[in-house]
Specification:
This protein is about 55% helix and about 0% strand. It has 4 helices and no strands. It has helices spanning about 5-15, 30-35, 40-55, 70-80. It starts with a helix and ends with a helix.
């Protein structure tokens, strides 16, 4: 799975959780939750949806590694390629 496919999946899932936002306009270093105004419950739903869609597990202690688009993509790339 390449980065563009993963990024597209991220945007689709964020759009489902926060339909009034434009996730595709996120800059790499912007905090996803703050920029899209996503509360903690929706953020958890997003992580669970990523787990299910990509078939990977993101443990709670790693949530901080998924704060920006850049760190999330890097984290997911490592998990997918394990």
């Amino acid at each position: 799975m390449n980065e563009e496919v993963v990024k597209k999946t991220i945007f689709q899932l964020l759009k489902r959780i926060a339909p009034e936002t434009e996730p595709s306009k996120l800059k790499p270093d912007e905090n996803i939750r703050e920029t899209l105004n996503i509360d903690s419950f929706d953020a958890l739903q997003f992580i669970v949806a990523l787990d299910e869609k990509l078939g990977i597990e993101i443990p709670e202690e790693d949530y901080g590694k998924t704060a920006t688009l850049k760190t999330l993509l890097s984290y997911l790339e490592r998990k997918i390629n394990q």
